[in-house]
Structures
1.
Amino acid sequence: MTARRIRGAAVTAAIAVSVAACSAPGGTAGDGEAAESVVIGVASEPDTLSPLLGYGKDGNSKIFDGLLARDAGLRLKPALAAALPKVTDGGRTYTFTLREGVKFSDGEPLTAADVVYTYRTVLDGRTNNTAKSELDAVRSVRADGDDTVVFTLKYPYAPFAARTVLPVVPEHIAAKQDPNTGSLNTEPVGTGPYVLTQWRKGEKLTFKANPHYWGPEPEVKTFTMAVIADDDVRATRLRSGDLDGAVLPPNLAATFEGNDGKRTYEAKSYDFRAVTLPTGHPVTGDRAIRQALDAAVDRQAMVDKILDGAGRPAYGPLPMDDPYFADGIQRAHDLAKARRILDRAGWKPGADGIRVHDGRRAAFTLLYPSGDKVRQDHALAYASDAKKAGIDVTVESATWEVIEPRMGKDAVLAGFGSVGDPDFGLYTLLHSSLAGDGFNNMARYRDPAVDKALDTGRRTQAPDEREAAYGTLQRALVDNPGYTFLTHIDHLYVLADRWDGLTTQLEPHEHGFASGPWWNIEDWQPKR
Amino acid sequence: MARLAGRRALFAGPVLLAVTFGVFAIAAASPFDPVKAYAGTAALGADQQTLDRLRANLGVDEPFWIRWWDWLTAALGGDLGHSSVLRQPVTQVIGERLVWSALLCAVAFAVAVLLGTVLGVLAARRPGSLPDRAVTSLAYLLEAAPVFWIALLAVWLFALQWDLLPAGGLTDTASEHVTFGQVTSHLMLPAGVLAVSQLPWFTLYVRQGVGDALAEDPVRGARARGLAEHTVLLGHALRSGLLPVLTLIGSRVPELITGALLVETVFSWPGIAAATVEAATAVDFPLLAALTTLATAAVLLGNLLADLLYGLFDPRVKLSDM
């Protein structure tokens, strides 16, 4: 198909969609015209589309680009920067040179001043950015001419380059408004492959290809993200042809198996479910109890029964697919071992089968956020496994408002996981200096060996040293489990089979909007 | 008439003030944390410093009466403030959504009044007849059914089973433009459900009113004079039978608003309902206050309208007495 014919088809498709979408929703499989327009159902929408307030900070924004981006294997690649940064001064100075000829979607050229403005505004305390602390390492950022940006860090921070996927906003627009309330929140202007044409909050976002995009022209000319919170409604609308694709929970995705013209994509993820074991509670603070729980849980059963097989057992915060995963820490479900540990530590079975030590029952409360079915199932399975070892876990559901003040004393069924670098997820989860700091280190976990490994992993640039540090950390976590890691959850997507070369990335906790098979929709090729 | 309207307007001021003050007080007492609502899912990964900084930036720790006073003085100056949860000026939120809510309510109300009158007259013609019993039982059944239940049933039947009408949204998901045809087809189900939920009140009132009127002397006299049945029914009985319906129109406005809230949620109709719910759970004071003021004003206007209509159509009522 020549470019002209593609354009012709796009116009025809646009007309056909606006006139006759009622009678022919979605089009048919293999239809070249319909393949240029994609409608995807997601569960939630962003609060804001302004990167200054946190939108797209982990990359994969369709409207904006960062200095760097990630490929399918999550390796960093240049985006707005012409190449990966030059790191000097012992890891304290990062120098980026910008790609030539990049324009914002309003036609204005990108300069180093835009990059500097973006980072300075995010770092400004008056900007309501929830992820500002992720850039804590930055001391200053300055432009060196029109095409060079220099970051100076407070301390050597190895994963800094991975933070520069943060989207860059146009200074000539953003500087004229209040970053907290300005129109950039709902009418973004960026350098990305698509521009937002319409955002009806709570209903859908519509995008079309950006005519000024610096990369190759996308084959998918328009796409729509329909916001449908209810899983069943999303599945129904996918089945009726109203949607081309959707993110679905495992049980609903399974109903599309063997459906002609639909393909299921399973994205592996960092998204773990774990039980926090607060050090402030006399029972969960006991190392023997933690170790026993770790041995008593049947992770594989949770994967099979709760996740319908769409997940993997979690032996630590890092999934087995991560390059930093410490091979050898995998451990089987071992109830006998759990009992041995408890016996040895002096937790003796009481009259009701629940173990007792110094007159204290081995009992604690496990909270989970109400309405989250997957977490509820995990919590109930955990309580049932613990009971077999003689530990009484009371499962309770509550809203986050109720859970938050109780996090220091009661266990919580938590879910989390960041991509990009082990430092991003692990430091805030485990470092003792962040114990009980907001939602960081919810279990108030303190372990000197873990702290040391986290600091090493953060500051050294040498890859082997980092790998050794994160290996030490994962083994220390097995010895002194502050959390019982249960599962890593696969994210499932069902899409009409009309495009070639769809891939998924290893995904973070959040999913569906920025990640999913559409993480690189600009590269999709319609099937011929 | 002007005096009635004037007096009501004077009365409306204090009512609106009290209502907005109450909204601020109740919202401040709610367990929802505006900072968490603002940060959304990001709050679950945020450190304490970030949350404290947001709290200070958003100024949510000020006592509610100070925030109310600030809001009120700004609102009187024409600035309705900025919605923290939708990240848009409140005027823009209302401007974008009110028109769709108004369309939904207006269509539903018109259908309910017209259809209710027709069914009511049909039932009143021969009390105890088959049409009467059918209409009355249907009305009682609908009166008992919750709006959201009817809405879900309608989605299941018309969108899923028969695939006749779209299940939600303002237009088809893939459609980029808001066209008349699209909106019409998407409006049918939500407006129909809302109309059906209001229908029993009008039907029963009209049936009662017309039934009573048919037994009154003027109608009996008209019949005796040999006037055609439809002249008697429509010209005499319906005119006096409709009087109670006029009062009803005003008093149904609050229910119409709450009904629209539920219907909009079920059908993902981009009206102000979703915004209202979000504003309430996110303790978004400026948006919540503006929307409550709007709803209160609608109710007050509805009542005024009913009284004015009553005064105009019923010669026994003097507006100056009201």
2.
Amino acid sequence: MTESRPAGRRLPVTVTVNGVARTADAEPRRTLSDFVRHDLGLTGTHVGCEHGVCGACTVLIDGDPVRSCLVLAVSAQGHDVTTVEGLGQPDTVTELGPVQRAFRDCHALQCGFCTPGFLTTITAGIAENPTPTRDEAVDMIAGNLCRCTGYQNIVEAVLTAARYAAGDDTPGGPAGHGAAGVEH
Amino acid sequence: MKPPPFTWHGPRSVDEAIAVLGEVGSEGKVLAGGQSLLPVLAMRLAAPAHLVDINAVEGLDTITVDASGVTIGALVRHTGLLRHPAAGNAQPLIPQALSCVAHATIRNRGTTVGSLAHADPSGEMTSVLALLGGSITAQSTRGARTIAAADFFVGPLESTLAPDELVVSAHFPGTVREPGTTSGTAFAEIARRHGDYALCGVAAIARVDAGGALLSLRCGYLSVSEVPLVLELTDAWNDSERAAVELARVGVDPSSDIHATAEYRRSLAGVLTARVARTAIAKARSVPELRAG
């Protein structure tokens, strides 16, 4: 039978967020981005443009990066969602995942608004391509807007994150400064 | 920037989906990937009273490759089709054009059939479907019908799909294999950022004989006309590259907007035509000939 939900009527939506099954009531027009922020209280996902241009709200659905402002919460029913809160590594000293450490070490953020979208995108990107070239790193982040950094250090962070994820912990640095940042 | 209220329907089968569409008629809109529909709702450019969400419908996520080409179900995401090697072998234009469709995050969610149904003349795959002479199959409680691309696109964001119809699949013809001939394809577009809407894009299919002489050259255009445009350039190219480029420049009908003037888009159509035609012809000439018998 086709399930139907009248406009304005809130009904339960269950998604597995960062490994934990979570349920909250949402009306049909609730976007996944608002659902995780307002209904589940996970405010790490940032909402920028709300029409799929800026990439700030990117989360992973079943491992693939998608814009959570362009997915209805009800469409995500039963799926796995990973938000920026799920990217840490609680068993390590810093509790940061490799992409987060790379962003810190490369100074790849200033105001930080766009950062959650970059972190989720790059996490999936280096899982798919563990050894990106500089061009591939640029392409990986082409769908995310940052208005502070000018991208150089974010590209550096992609390359550094790939190394960290592969177990090479030689620190990265901002473009043109650290050992990892100089390319001749 | 929130979508206006709507009643949500979550059918589990094609029969359920078309039953709902039959009831809600022109008040309804189909939601698949939502990468074009949700921005339209967020910006309040449309306010359908009913959304028929087909994301949980069984059996619509299949890719079938056979001698006739590639048939994809309505829930095949761009990424799924892009990563399907057999589909790319059967019709190389599919991955060539798909890799230019938006950004990876959009391709992960957006469906190829959805972008065809959206009928955006800036869409890469609408242009490819038109160039290949492909078709879409629509279903309603009144039955199923297959619509040729040439009869499907009638205006910007406008198709001949009836309000109660669901596009269940699209068919992209494969490479034509005739003894003594070989073919090649190419796709190129210019966008301010890779992944943005193209200012102009061109797809080409060329076929040559065993001696390398050009038998056929056809190009498909996006972002330079109100419906996907296909131009037959064989005779012009055999005359000279300049003649083919000129035919493309006068054949397109671009508009000016904040991204580019009509004249600039026309210029791009000429430049890209030469580029993809050269590539497609070179590829056709480098393919080992298919022997008769």
3.
Amino acid sequence: MSTRRVPTRAWVGLVLLVGLGLASWLAARVFPEALASTCPLGTDPTHPDRTVCELAFGGLWVSLAVGLMAGALSTALGLGVAMGARAAGGAVEHQVLRAVDAVFALPDVLVVMVLQLAGQSMLDAGHAGGLGPFGLMVVSLALVGWAGPARMFRNRLATLEGQEFIAASRALGAGRWHLLRVHLWPALRPFVLAVFLSRLPTAILAESTVSFFGIARMEPMSLGRYLGTSYAALIYEGGARVVLPAWGLLVLLVLGASLASQALGAGTRRA
Amino acid sequence: MSPALVRLGRQLVLVPLVALASYFLMAALPLTTDDDAKRQVAPEVLASYRRDLGLGQPLGFLRPWVKLFRGERLGTSAQGVTGDELLWKLSGSVGVGLVALVLALGWALAFALLRARWRRGRLAVLGDALPAVAFGTPVFIPALLLAPAVVERGHLLPELSAALVISVWPGIFLGTLVADALDTELSRDYVRTALGKGLSPHSVLWRHVLPNVLPALLDAVGPVATALLAGSFAAERVFGLPYFGQLYVLAVLQKQVAVVVVATTVFASLLVAVGLGVELVRLWVDPRAREART
């Protein structure tokens, strides 16, 4: 049996993601004084006791963690919906797909803002079920982002189920659970990873935008929230020194996730 | 019933669904001025919340709309909005969005042509890197970089600057689509046949290839409209434009929930209107869509 090679571009993307996330976490949580003492960009205009490096590079892992968790949750939700729809079949599947398309048509940022408003009111009243601002953002992003994965998984499952080896297995008496565990899941697994990675940039960017508006109250601050808390100062004092590093970090995060997702996605299409 | 009408019907159903979903989500919020809550809302916000949403009243979900049509103010007197103001703000955002759409088409054409030129040279990597950079750039980043020149020094018109910053990603996205669709169409047999029969490359492109590229472009109009309108939220906030995006963000921040319900529904209606427009244009330009209709 031959082992399937992971494409080089996928490795580059994954190393970029993991490397940036790990370096940011270590710098912010384990060696904060290193960033404070060696930052060439100086102090932040609205937080004079903190350097730009501490706030920008230190906020990267928060954005990445939100993206990873929201991406994982929305992928899991999408997979569950797709499997449920395929298992039900017929009119139920048709109606589920219509609902999926309706949710998919809604703009991410707007819906996340509404969900944050609702969630924060519940949080303030003590009805949030133990979720803090971080969990609230993850759940909001997942509730917005499950529709795309659900559509993709449903289509992929329909393609796989139409193949001859599945028909042969059915003819030999395989049950639904056996088909899923032995045939469908191994074929679906790389695709699930690719879809999860493709959700990552969308989740990170949506979180950054909503946090920039000052609607999310996450602590420690994500990249978007950091720029949002400083934006009035950036407008009047000229913010390239603050904005450019944060922009570069966001682009690198998105680039890493996109590279890995596209390379893995292309691999699964060839397979 | 024709597939096109079915698609139109499905889009129209979205508007009341969004209106009801956003109303009942907002009506269920546990807003309070009680001391035991960690964060209280101001008593006037709570009063407008109960009054505007018609809580506990029969057909209370119609209350925000009734108030708007009567010309009454939704939300608190300081931060609320009337129907006329809402329309004015919406027209401002749509105007910025339309200018951004024109700019995005310009970016798209430029990027598609540059990518076609770069493909054969050393700059091919730029054709792949530019979409990644554009996708990884939230609208507020270029807006912040441009803000000192626009807001502080007044060198650029804020509306034009907002249109400029929100047009970049949709432009690159459209450009990528056009470039890919052009590649696919130019490699087809009918292009070779037309060239072989003596038609000029210019005629082949304009008379045969571009009409086949147009449906791919129409598919992208929905996501692009969403991106332009959602992008306007950040641009309006940074440049201080008092339009729909700014209204929406402030309504969420200040818990003006009736304004949120109405603005969310208006936003969804706008996207549905764009979808309807796209379907009509598709019926006009795409013979396959017309055949599916009959």
4.
Amino acid sequence: MDGRTSGRWRRLVAVAGVGVVLAGSLTACGDGSAATGTPTLNWYINPDNGGQQKIAEDCSAASGGAYSIEVSILPSDAAQQREQLMRRLAGGDTSIDLMSLDPVFVPETSEAGFLAPVPEDLRATFTDGVVDGAVQGATWKDELVAVPFWANTQLLWYRKSVAEAAGLDMTKPVTWQQLIEAAQAQDTAIGVQGQRAESMTVWVNAMIASAGGEVIENPDAKGPDIRLGIDSEAGKAAAAVMQRIADAGVGGPGIDNRDEAATANLFQQEGAAFMVNWPFVYAQGKAAAEGGTMDRAVFDDYGWTTYPAMAEGTPAAPPLGGIDIAVSAFSENTDAAYEALQCIVSEENQAAYMVSDGNPAALESVYDDPEVQEAYPMYDAIRTSLQAAAPRPQTAYYNEVSQGIADQWQPVSSVSDRTPSASQEYIGQVLKGEKLL
Amino acid sequence: MSATTTPRAAGARPAAGKPGKARSSDKARAEAKLGWYLAGPAFVILVAVTGYPILQALYESLFSYRLTAPGDREFIGLRNYGVILTDSLWWEAMVNTVLITVVTVAIELVLGFALAMVMHKVLGWLRPIVRTAILVPYAVITVVSAYAWQYAFALTTGFMNSVVPGVGEDFDWFANKWTALLVICLSEIWKTTPFISLLLLAGLAQVPSDTIEAAKVDGATAWERLWRVTLPNMKASIMVALLFRALDAFRIFDNVYIMTQGAAGTQTVSALAYNQTISRLEIGLGSAVSVLLFVCVLVICFLAIKVFKVDLARARGEG
């Protein structure tokens, strides 16, 4: 071996040595938390105004080194959140400890075995004093599989001046028919979500539930065995409301591509004097009025009441939403995760989160908090609505059902009395694997 | 195309190729061997990373398999293909995809050629500026460009309704199939015309200037020179540009996903595959859609290479 060759070997050995040291230190980085005894919990959150991040920091600090929570942000769209989580969970990703999960995807995630069981002794802690709908949303096959964090519901929002001019008595429940007539008389629009998206299912489900029906009659069943209740009197009543909105031309411009955010903007810009939407619109309107992008008088004209009824004398079953937090079955720190969850969903945190992010609490007692009452003057309407709310179909096939409804009931102008039967047939075929979606 | 010049151009080049091969020397053999040594590892890796997923997709497509219900996995033979090929949604997506491909590639070819001419002809300090300006859209990520076009046309954020004459203030471009497809095509054309013009520019550079000069001396008009000299000499480049873009356009996904998500009858084949595999997590059905999409791409390649005789090597000036 001459001098040059041995020099080259030395360099190679040196490079390999550096590589080994680097790899070692990288592994050490990954296990850093284990070395200090503080497990790092990774919490996948839906995007918000920073409320969940703050809760994570507060709980980490309060844990006294029992755990440290880091957040990872999911996409803003519920369907995309599901896609990302499902892909990771199906791959057995151990980096997910906690996840903020839309209740409609709880059955699918649980059925697939992706959720760590909720410890027996903690079940009461997580459900005591929580609104019924939220507990239902976190339950699958009679077992609590996720933890209710916040519970959302839609209200009917209106411009007080327009409702008054139309002669509507908003102290009593109003019907869709009354709204359509009022909007037509006042030459305004009703803000509804007509986009081919999950928001369409929220609307259709709420109308079917309000008319006494249900989209799925046996939600526990496997896909091919699911019995749908869309082709029913309730389904026809829902289709009739949509038809009347289209015929009267009170859907407003761009109805076919409007989701909740676009509806809130339309209402804010006075393009609609009525709308059905989640309570975030209030915080958004307030910020716009304070920021000078909306006239203060318009914000002061905001009124709210419970969701529109399908018929006079029959109370509405408003949409139920919110976020549950679940612990991944692949987490290596499930005990710490459940310990952290007790802190995350505490009454104090739920109240602070409602004030900071505009998302209504799952715990009923939070609505008695003076700070919450001041920030959300409609707290009582939210509480009443949550009590009457009907969850969306609790099925492991929610995505198929929802996409099928959105596909068949959109555009609103195409809805007819044949839509319920056509959509029932289509979704049935999709669930049996006989149709593409 | 001109029948007089093409054979001449085609006949002139293989002279260095095939007859030479017959009398291959030891040196040539050694070079070929070296070529394999150099390209071999890359070739093996390519086969592993593309071949493996393709074979797995083929295998999965024979099952009824939902990612969230692995226990219910069942072998069903070709039933997934039967479901897809008898579904009107598949054919609607196919028609949309073919339409988008034909329309965008045709327009891009004409526009791209015009831009390539501009890039080719412009001289002096203007040259780098013009070339950069033309290539900028291609540097934009497709998703970003799709959002930009969507925001421009959307009812809430758009300004197009106040710019385009004869369009009402409340007109929703994405609520109607044809206007939605129009915006999708416009965005696609804006984004990828520079790619075609770049390939055509390389072709233009290969056209011998003395042939053009000779045609000029012979009294050919600019139009005749274009059709009888420039274009025939660029045939290989044009065909390669056409093939690359057709394959690319056929797999259109981003624009549709961002702008309509397949609403208003704008579904395309790639978006359909995504929806079954990623959104529904129906791995079997989705794999079958992907396999069919792959077959379509193979057919396009076959048509281009066998029927239209696209020679990929020659277009790069290797012939």
